[in-house]
Specification:
The chain is mostly helical. The protein folds into 2 domains: 1-52, Arc Repressor Mutant, subunit A (Orthogonal Bundle), CATH 1.10.10.60; 58-192, Tetracycline Repressor, domain 2, CATH 1.10.357. The protein has helices at 5-26, 33-40, 44-50, 54-78, 83-98, 101-115, 117-141, 150-171, 176-192.
Length: 195
């Protein structure tokens, strides 16, 4: 009997949820396919049908976490009433998200080892850079740093924020305010820059 699209989506979702919990709890290497399918309540065949391998399932989990983080950043930024406030709220959201134990294990400890640095970077950039580019466009529309090329400016800000997030993950969430103070200073400089 053929599975319906709804049943297939439910199976895929159960695998993602189970794998995400296990990867966060014990890491990629320790987690077995048997543990994943047992927790999801599905068969090994279902895992291979939907993802092909544990590595591909991990990749899908990492993408989901990155998409969630980007959504949190956009939602937080939308609460800002000024460009500065929106950017700082978005920065706080990403710093807080990446300082969570789940992201530290899956996104930082395991993702580069399992997927490789290049793939980790490609996924992270393909999801988050557009958000920073939108922020840079809003800045330039308001007359900030209008003489600077927008794409390189966005890439540099994105890279700095990514590294700040890694540093916060190592130092702990108490360091977030220190990074936001520096970001605020950078925004002051961009507001007055003419290129």
């Amino acid at each position: 009997m053929r599975r319906t699209a709804h049943e297939a989506a439910a199976t895929r979702s159960a695998l993602l949820e189970a794998a995400r919990a296990l990867f966060a709890e014990q890491g990629y290497e320790v987690t077995t396919n048997d543990q994943i399918v047992d927790r999801a309540g599905v068969t090994q065949g279902a895992l291979y049908h939907h993802f092909g391998s544990k590595r591909e399932l991990f990749r899908a989990v990492f993408v989901a976490i990155e998409v969630e983080m980007d959504a949190k950043v956009r939602t937080a930024a939308a609460e800002g009433s000024t460009i500065d406030e929106a950017f700082l709220l978005g920065c706080r959201a990403v710093l807080e998200h990446m300082s969570q134990p789940e992201y530290q294990q899956i996104g930082l400890a395991d993702a580069t080892a399992v997927l490789g640095m290049r793939t980790w970077h490609e996924i992270d950039t393909s999801i988050g850079l557009a958000t920073v580019e939108g922020a840079v466009q809003a800045m330039q529309d308001a007359g900030w740093a209008t003489g600077m090329p927008s794409r390189p400016l966005a890439v540099l800000l994105f890279g700095a924020l990514t590294h700040a997030c890694i540093s916060v993950a190592n130092a702990g969430p108490d360091s977030i305010d220190d990074y936001l103070t520096v970001v605020s200073g950078l925004l002051d400089a961009l507001r007055t820059a003419d290129g």
